[in-house]
Amino acid sequence: MPLTNFSRLTKLFREQEVTADEEVYRELFVLVLSRATDADAYTHPAEIASVQAVIKEYLGEDISSSDIRTAALSKLYESAPLHKYLAEVAPRLSRPQRVSIIRGLVEVLKADGNVSSGEAEFFNMVTMALGLTAADAAGLAVE
Fold first, then answer.
1. What structural domains does the chain harbor?
2. What is the tens place of the pLDDT at every residue in 42-52?
3. Would the pTM of this model clear 0.85, i.e. be above it?
4. Contact assessment for residue 96 and residue 56, using Cβ atoms and an 8 Å cutoff
5. Could you give the C-alpha distances from 1 to 27, 45, 56, 76, in angstroms and in order?
């Protein structure tokens, strides 16, 4: 199934399924990273390449630049904003899955060597919607 189909994520959100599976995590990972490329209203080519590299590293799959651009502007956002999808699905994902989304997001946001205020706001929104703390986002393990 293509990574940009988002069928499991949409089903989970609309039908209030109780559990999220690995496919939902993968779809959300792609959705967040793709959307990050448009967080500052300018998609730098380095951001697209970074999304491709991060998805390959974390999910072990290749994704085309056109699929990333399509996912960034997905019709999924017409039915609900991203933060609503994240807040709805986050409790059903494991903490390591949520943290990996944030770590991948950091790599993408730093790709062009410049983090804009819009990108920082996007990062904060994703972190909060995933139910993570600043310590989680910074990779600090609390014992």
1. 7-133 (1.10.3680.10)
2. 788 899 999 99
3. no
4. no
5. 10, 26, 16, 17
